[in-house]
Amino acid sequence: MKFTKMQGIGNDYIYVNCFEEQVTDPGKLSIRLSDRHFGIGSDGVILIKPSKTADCEMDMYNADGSRGKMCGNGIRCVGKYVYDRGICRKNPLRVDTQSGIKTLYLQVENGAVQSVRVDMGAPVLEPENIPVQLPGSHAVNVPYSVAGKEQHITCVSMGNPHCVLFVPDTDSLDLEKIGPNFENAPIFPERVNTEFIQLISRTEIKMRVWERGSGETLACGTGACASVVACVLNDKTERRVRLHLLGGDLVVTWDEKTGHVFLEGPAAFVFDGTVEV
């Protein structure tokens, strides 16, 4: 099977062109290929498929084999792949996902995509739809005890569930220890991605993320979007924010007029290869 390794500010996935290849058990394949010692090494596998309702479909699987509904960094790489490889040269580009069709606006230089702005849609704030088992119409700045320590959390879905909390310093966090406590907290029936936010200014923040099924990653696009929504809801920042993640920077805008969240960032090829399946 042919594959392509790509990354969006360090959030790396193995991409399979299912216009040409067939994958029978993508969850099992993702577990094997994502292993950084015995496989190719990645945060998961993303299948690029034909779509009857959009220009293509993104079907993503986490490193533990679980299926994901949306990936902000991954979908930017899908946009670059299908444009640069000639599958679809449209701009804007429409990509179907498990959380609906997303529109991608491509920045193209010398025939190649350099960065992508994604319309991620409107955030989901109702607890039952995130899902998170908390009372009230919105889960904003809610006190909740995790591993015996009370935190104030804000929960948002950007096609997948996110839990956002503010910390004084992201660099000093032991995410290997505290990340699983959030991911598997009983209030999250589908587990959760957790973002730890350090405020720098009204337009700039630092972020680390623990992703369900993958552990700490260098970046999370949906997490960046959820974090900016949480910042605005808690009156911590403006609606357009630059985020500093371990893998690089993203810019997120929560548009007041449309209610949609827009994610801007780069996408890059790493290498092509073949693997026995």
From TrEMBL:
Active site: C71 (proton donor), C71, C220 (proton acceptor)
Site, as annotated: Could be important to modulate the pK values of the two catalytic cysteine residues: H162, E211
Protein family per UniProt: Belongs to the diaminopimelate epimerase family.
Self-association state and partner proteins as the record states: Homodimer.
Protein name: Diaminopimelate epimerase
One Gene Ontology term from the biological process aspect of the record: lysine biosynthetic process via diaminopimelate
The enzyme's E.C. designation: 5.1.1.7
Annotated source species: Caproicibacterium lactatifermentans
A Gene Ontology term for the protein's cellular component: cytosol
Keywords: Amino-acid biosynthesis, Cytoplasm, Isomerase, Lysine biosynthesis
Annotated localization: Cytoplasm
Keyword hit for Isomerase: yes
Group of enzyme by EC: isomerase
Gene from which the chain derives: dapF
Domain of life: Bacteria
One matching Pfam family: DAP_epimerase
Gene Ontology molecular-function annotations: diaminopimelate epimerase activity
Pathway annotation: Amino-acid biosynthesis; L-lysine biosynthesis via DAP pathway; DL-2,6-diaminopimelate from LL-2,6-diaminopimelate: step 1/1
Catalytic activity field: (2S,6S)-2,6-diaminopimelate = meso-2,6-diaminopimelate
Residues reported to bind substrate: N11, N62, G72, N73, N160, N193, E211, R212, G221, T222
Chief localization: cytoplasm
Function: Catalyzes the stereoinversion of LL-2,6-diaminopimelate (L,L-DAP) to meso-diaminopimelate (meso-DAP), a precursor of L-lysine and an essential component of the bacterial peptidoglycan.
